[in-house]
Amino acid sequence: QVQLVESGGGLVQAGGSLRLSCAASGSISSINAMGWYRQAPGKQRELVATITQGGRTNYANYVKGRFTISRDGAKDTVYLQMNSLQPEDTAVYYCTAFARMAYWGQGTQVTVSS
Fold it and tell me: How many CA atoms does the CB half-sphere of 97 hold within 13 Å?
């Protein structure tokens, strides 16, 4: 079992920045990769970014150049630095860990005002 706790969401004006954190606990050694997804009202959950245990990253096209995913292995924590935020980035952001199955955090709300 893997437990994930997100933090760092909030309200920001367009053009602003936020940093999300996701702390993992439990069966950490079973995790192959971690990532962030988001879900806006009335829309399906979509990929934002992922990072493997080796540090390889992958980004959705709509966040490339604006968002950066990183990890601190010593703290078992993954971060999502979000810059140049736009109103269309408003969503609940979910942390996920990929092991034998996918584990999900409870989500953190990000709201970007115009």
Answer: 27
Q: CA 102 to CA 2: how far, in whole Å?
A: 9
Cα 25 to Cα 22, 73, 78: the distances in Å are 10, 12, 12
CB–CB of 102/94 below 8 Å? no
Identity at 100, one-letter amino acid code: R
**pLDDT classification of 75: cutoffs 50, 70, 90:** confident
Query: How many Cβ atoms sit within 10 Å of the Cβ of residue 11?
Result: 12
Percent of the chain residues past pLDDT 90, beyond the cut = 90
Tell me the pLDDT tens digit for each residue of 47-71: 999 999 999 999 999 999 999 999 9
Cβ–Cβ < 8 Å for 73, 51: no
Under 8 Å between Cβ of 82 and 90: no
Q: What are 97's strand-pairing partners?
A: 34, 103
Lookup result for tokens 């606990």: 25
